Amino acid sequence: MMSTILIVDDTESSRDLLSKLLIKQGYRTVCAHDGLEALAAVEEHRPDLILLDIMMPVMDGVEFLRTLRQDPQRTELPVIAVTACSDPATLQRMTDLGVFDYMIKSRFSISLLLTRVRDALTSPGQNPAPASLSN
């Protein structure tokens, strides 16, 4: 069965790039512009993984993740933050909210992203202790 990945980012070019990349790898993608759209998409499409930007209008990634984790059926849904935000306090809040991993947009490769996606889909309950700042 094909995994569904929800891409949440307010930048259309980022959404398109990630979507095309993941579709080429055999994944189904759904996109949302902000946290509110993402909450609706989670209900409608029941994704297996979420790639989440942090800095977005309307509802940012931290608030989205906080809201998502309040739903008992969504506490284990893997989320990878893919963001330009490298603020340690914000990344710590994301970690505290159970983000599977985070990747700083300017510091990762496509192969690393695909590896993290596969890891999150094969072992969603196994948080690798986000360490992508060093990558």
Structure write-up:
This protein is of the alpha/beta class. The protein has helices at residues 12-24, 35-45, 61-69, 88-96, 110-122, and strands at 4-8, 28-32, 49-52, 79-83, 101-104. It has a single domain, classed as Rossmann fold, CATH 3.40.50.2300. Helices cover 41% and strands 17% of the residues. The chain has a five-stranded parallel beta sheet, with helices on both faces. Helix 4 links the parallel strand 4 (79-83) and strand 5 (101-104). Helix 2 (35-45) packs parallel to helix 3 (61-69). The longest helix is centred in the first third of the chain and has 13 residues, at 12-24. It starts with a strand and ends in a 13-residue tail after the last helix.
Question: How would the blueprint of this fold be written?
Answer:
Blueprint lengths: L3 E5 L3 H13 L3 E5 L2 H11 L3 E4 L8 H9 L9 E5 L4 H9 L4 E4 L5 H13 L13
Helix pairs in contact: 2-3
Summarize the model shown.
The chain is an alpha/beta fold and 135 residues long. 41% of the residues lie in helices and 17% in strands.
